[in-house]
Amino acid sequence: MGALRTAIVATATWLLFAPAADAGGLRLVSQQRLDDRMLELTLRTPAASGPTKVRVLLPSGYARGTRRYPVLYLLHGAVDDYRSWTDKGDAEALTAGRPLIVVMPDSGLGGGYVNWWNGGLRGPPAWETYHVRQLIPFVDRRFRTVARRGGRAVAGLSMGGFGAMSYAARHPDLFTAAAAFSGAVDTGNAAIRAVTSDVVYGPRDTQQVRQRGSNPVDLAPNLRGLQLTLRTGDGRAGGPLGGGPDGVEAVVQGASITLHQRLRALGIPHLWDDYGPGAHTWPYWRRDLQRTLPRLLAAFRRGAGTPARFTYRATAPRYRIYGWRVAVKRPALEFSELRSHGRRGFSLTGSGTAHVVSARLFPAGKRVDVTARFSFGKPRHTLVRADPSGRLTLTLTLGPGNPAQQDTAGARTTRYRTRVLFTPAP
């Protein structure tokens, strides 16, 4: 009778946080309780073809309390699915007694963690849209989460290691930490690119910039300020957990080394664990997760605020980051880069015309002298008044738009840098 009462209370507690449908069309189809801690959810979203599933591990005692918990998004590798971390990776046992929620979504057998190009038609699968724009808000509404940057981390193995570092780089304002285990973290790596279908990114000779726009190595400056962990073996036999020689592990080691070297060149702190002999197999990934969990919990305890200074690179013509909003009008797809210096100003690199709305930097109505220094021509001075939320709105002409998409044959992409200085008026 006591066990039945506990189950009823637990079910009622979970359903209390269950919205019927979310923005973007994400809808809960069904929920199954697999054991005391694990739920399996079936969801429908326009971003995926057909139903997609998620496993969720709740901390012990979740149903009996009111405490909020940080969330670890734990991502699977290729030729695997949402069940792999619990069925093969001992995620339930490894997280037992730890104060966190673990969310394990599906991302297909290959080409995961990006919105597919599909010959220019786009459409499903749009994994980034589903995971970042729909699933994270859904989880925050449904469960008692710490629904801010300092309460989220992302980790994954192999293809999921790419997903973890790529999502963290594309959305650093959503996560405080990211970890990759044997991660395919450089999609520019020849061996990794060779096994990626053109349906995902498009042909390399015409759409390479799309692949670079989600590649952790190309987006490495965005990772500053996050707690980062890279763990990999080298594929040789003789590792303590068996396996090898293993060519796949050797390939992802090369990708991991490239990202490690890029982070080191940028002066971005990270844990680098190249443990030598070891295979692309579950015993090593279970150990990786076990060793990484204390770091993630420490990151949650520290929390993470919004940095005043940051660098953000993106190929998207529109983006929001750390409270800033940027929309660039230009003829062709290319990288742009925003560097914020907080109340001192910012710089924006790219081409075309940019509409920029700052973060909340000043008191409402405050007059600010804005000086824009362009790559060409004389500086311009404008007096701008902060809106009721303390933001400044500016339109900048960066430079002539490049007619051809970046990284295509014959393209000469010129990037212009505009520096903007803020000086509060008396």
Entry summary:
With 426 residues, the chain is an alpha+beta fold.
Rg measurement, Å: 23 Å
- Helix amount, in percent? 25-40%
The overall pLDDT, averaged over residues, is 94
Beta-strand fraction estimate: 25-35%
* Strand tally: 19
Q: What is the CA-CA span between the terminal residues?
A: 72 Å
Shape type: globular
Describe it for me?
The chain is built from ten helices and 19 strands. It has helices spanning 2-16, 84-87, 91-94, 127-142, 159-170, 190-194, 198-201, 204-212, 247-266, 282-302; strands at 27-33, 38-44, 52-57, 71-75, 101-105, 152-157, 177-181, 227-232, 271-274, 309-314, 318-321, 324-329, 336-341, 345-350, 352-357, 367-373, 380-385, 393-399, 416-424. The strands form three sheets. It has a nine-stranded mixed sheet, sandwiched between helices. Strands 10-13-14-19-16-17 form a six-stranded antiparallel sheet, with no helix packed on it. Strands 11-12-15-18 form a four-stranded antiparallel sheet, with no helix packed on it. β6, α5 (159-170) and β7 (177-181) form a beta-alpha-beta unit. It starts with a helix and ends with a strand.
